[in-house]
Amino acid sequence: MTIIEKIIAAHANLHHVKPGDIVDVLIDTRAARDFGGANVVKNLLDHGLDVDDVSKTIFTFDCNPGGSDQKYAANQQFCRLYAREKGIEVYDVNAGVGTHLAIDSGLAWPGSTFVSTDSHANIMGAISSFGQGMGDQDIAAAWAKGKVWFKVPESVRINLIGKRPANVTAKDIILNLLSIFGANKLLGYSVEIYGDEMEKLTLDERITISSMGTEMGAIIVLFPTTPALLEELEAKTGNRYDSVHADANAIYTKIIDIEISKFIPMVAKPGHPHDDTSVESVKGEKIDSGFIGSCTNGRIEDLRVAAVILKDRKVAPGVVLKIVPSTDLIWNQALEEGLIQVFKDAGAMVSNAGCAGCAAGQVGQNGPGEVTISTGNRNFEGKQGKGFVYLASPAVVASSAIAGYITTPDQIPDIPAVFESAVGSGQLAGKVSEREAKSEKRKANRSEAELGGAKSEKPTIVEGRVWIIQQDDIDTDMIFHNRYLTITDINEMGQYSFDNLKGYEDFAQKSKPGDIVITRKNFGAGSSRQQAVDCFLSLGVSCILAESYGAIYERNAINAALPILTYDPAILKEIDLQNGDIIRVNFESGEIGNLRNSKSGRINKFYDAQKAIYLNGGLL
Question: Is the dihedral of CA 100, 101, 107, 113 positive or negative?
Fold first, then answer.
């Protein structure tokens, strides 16, 4: 078996599992964040469910550690009260990123299982642990039952061959891989990475690479353990751990050899983490701000690299550099080592530990037209603000902040670039015009039946008007933007559906109950937010058809009884499907018919577990 198969089998009390098997998996640690945590509790209370084992259950408040947003503060306090009642441990706003806390404190370990409302919970692949981000219902079920259903994924083995160039960081490795595989070539796979250079990686470097498995569409990016890794984990936690490896005769769907010696320093261009190019190709691009942090690059090694570059230098005039350690322990370590002083002397802003720029309303957000270079893992439009975000390594971000433009550590100028005055040019007036506010959207007002909340028989054949959206990799920020994440009432969610998808901002206003959305590959890429599913239930969308789905989104939709099916793109031509056509879809047989021309064909039908959950009205 592969690594993921061995972990799943061990936690399902089975001797062997294979890809496609659906099993109940015991979860060693079950986490909920301040984002999603309130909905997890609400799900438990609404369904009369209790917590299976409080000793394996935690809250982590890392999305808004300042409690600076009133709705986040309310959700955090709601979770605190529930935690006090049940005896659940809370890693509060002063603690840092939950996944990092789990690794550093022994809540996750080699061979363990970990779930969270954090879509980057698969960061646990760095320590050969099976971590998964899941939606609110999934986590509620894990808290109540101690287990979750899971379909064993196929595994891909990547061998990185040759010697790693000296100027290629861990962030460059994952950006190079993203440039090769994009957002969906590894969609739904468990990926294992091997190679002589990979065995030399530190824990912090492994974390950087594994944290962006989500951006590649992978279930998880796993590294086998090494003696050095086990020693580092033992030093952190005081616990001894067994090694975790795939069997020598493990079966992989694909084995891919890649020359790491050809990797180069890279950046991801604004809009998509997989739209990667060499740093050289964008060198000289003027920046407004820099950000060092996130679950991808907020570790102590990242901060040390930045401090070496920033020492005895100043951030360029007009540029703002924001630095956020991933945990409070790392923050204090940086303080003891003098790194915080280096950052302050250079003119950087240092914030308390947390997710920062990846969460709306926190340190790291940018404004309209602002150009930011960031160590984060996502740069979807609107994700880190209204500006443009390049993704890069801490070394490149620190160097660029000093230069005032994108550059590398070996090409930092003696005199930084400065901004030219725009007084009298009309530029400011133009920017204000571009940011003209949208008129307030109408609130969705749907009946309980439309929301799927009524306890009635679920139809297995539906008819509806189609919306054909010819776009791959529609992410959860495009579906339901993170600025609305504090909404917990499903009645309020529908009005924001596709609010951040260009060309479809008015979808919620024009949609009708029963409509069917048809899109392409990797629909629902990105975060674990349940709202990106619930918003369609709120509108009364009868089903979604896509060539493939983001792994977390697929689970969330199935668990919420939102019918989703996959299809071969040839079927659209076969039935001559056009926007606005009325089609009939049979979930059980996979038959699809175009009522305009009476043409029919077949798509992939519900599988048994999906059908059972759908007919049950949802997982809970």
Answer: negative
- pTM comes to 0.85
The model's pLDDT over 562-605, given as tens digits with 9 standing for 90+, comes to 999 999 999 999 999 999 999 999 999 999 999 999 999 999 99
Phi, psi of 66 (to 5 degrees): -85, -10
Full residue range of the structural domain in which residue 223 is found: 3-262
Minimal CA–CA distance to 611: which of 596, 594, 590?
A: 590
CA-wise closest residue to 606 among 548, 551, 566: 566
- Whether 97 maps to a domain, the answer reads yes
> What per-residue string of b and e applies to 232-248 under the rule 16 or more CB within 10 Å gives b?
ebeeeeeeebeebebee
80 pLDDT more than 60 = yes
Q: Which residue type occupies 462?
A: V
**pLDDT single digits (tens) 184-210:** 899 999 999 999 999 999 999 999 999
Q: Are 113 and 28 in contact (CB under 8 A)?
A: yes
- Which residues partner with 566 through β-bridges? 546
Q: Residue 193: enclosing H or E segment and its boundaries? A: strand 190-194
DSSP code, position 271:
B
Q: Check whether residue 392 and residue 498 sit in a common domain.
A: no
Collapsing DSSP to helix, strand or coil, 186 comes out as coil
